[in-house]
Design goal:
Elements: E1 2-3, H1 5-25, H2 27-51, E2 58-63, E3 67-69, E4 74-82, E5 88-94, E6 100-102, E7 109-111, E8 115-125, E9 129-132, E10 135-141, E11 147-154, E12 158-162, H3 167-170, H4 178-185, E13 195-202, H5 214-220, E14 224-230, E15 235-241, E16 249-250, E17 253-254, H6 255-272, E18 276-282, E19 286-293, H7 296-306, H8 318-328, E20 334-339, H9 344-357, E21 362-368, H10 371-377, H11 387-409, E22 413-417, H12 422-436
Parallel strand pairs: 3-12, 15-18, 15-20, 20-21, 21-22
Antiparallel strand pairs: 1-11, 2-4, 4-8, 5-7, 5-10, 6-8, 9-12, 10-11, 13-14, 16-17, 18-19
Helix pairs in contact: 1-2, 6-7, 6-12, 8-9, 9-11, 10-11
Amino acid sequence: MGLTKRLALLLVICAGIILAAGLAGGKLFAVLAGVLVNVIVLVLVVYDIIATPGPKTVVPDRELEEKMSLGHTHTAKIIVRNTSDVPLKIEVRDDVPYYFTRVTETKPLEIAPHTEGTFTYEIRPVKRGEYAFPCINIRYPGVLGLIRRSAKYPDGRKYRVYPNMRDLTDYSISALSASLFSLGLKRIRANSDGGEFSSLREYVPGDNYRYINWAATARSGDLKVNTYVPERNQYIYVLLDSSRVMSTVFNDMLILDYGINAAFLLADYCIRGGDNIGMELFSAEVSHFIKADKGPEQFELLADKLYAVEGNENSADYDNAMAVFSSAVKRRSLVFVFTQLFNEEEAVRFVKAVRTRLARHLVCAITIGDPRPEEIAAGKSEEKADAFMRSAALKYVKDRKKISGILTSAGILNYDTRPDQLSLTAVSAYLNIKKQGIL
């Protein structure tokens, strides 16, 4: 319980009355006035204490998504019920975990007797994992406004922060929406190798004559062509590097988090496309391996296993990661590897591991680069760069081109992308490979 500004103002007024009484009638009048006003104030405070409902008459509850997305703004609601017989002007402040940023705050609200009020505020999680909100703090003034009651309401519920599956709109790839997904995959093929027959349609100028269905044409009298969709039920894996190279920060987010976001978005598209998706997380050792499967249950399994993974300070052992994968997966699969390769030696080591361990699989390496050196090298950076920084930036750009050349020469599909474009790059690569039917 605390005192209020109203009580402080009342005490100032009382002091003025005592001073005026002393000036008008001397010391005796001052003493009498002091006793009288103090008694009055004491009675008012005691009445306020007795008449003001206790914390047990205030019942708060929190409404918040139990599964939140990293970096996305979420709205939390604190619903407070006033079970007392008097109106209460209530202030609420929710204790949020360390890795959450408050975007907005709650505002005071007067709640009538035996009714409830809703307090809303917005938060943004900045790290994946499982978190508990310690307690809900509530305070409200007394019925006379002379005292203030406050209380803490413990809350042991836990909430999970998953990779951001809402990146789809952020990357402006609405063309990959559910309605256009099948259209993006659909293509005309000369035969069904790597594809499945979809439908017949009218011939349009520019169609290859090899795709004409002569039997259907003879029956209808109009030229008909076959259309095919890529084969479904294929096996896709993501090998995600969680070593120290993925612990750097770009735009206030770890590179590893960009990788996990991309892996989950890719998993979503694979499942919707009818394919099987699995994942492996590695650094010096393999920390997680999830066998490929399909359906919503598989996505939930991936989310439950990987939403709280952490990076480490070890170096990536590509040979060990691919050896573990090769022994676990015998069926030919499309293998995406999300990693950073900083120099030619790393690229050569990566190529050797792929050739030795993953010869039967189709490997697509997506290397993650930092766009800042490229901006400095091109003179487009807002940062002031001296000659040394420009020289280092130029070398960085040159090395990345060499790395891409080494992977291409080894016959490994590869894409070099910036962290905030990783999701788009991964999904586009998947769709292109499916469209080409090369798996």
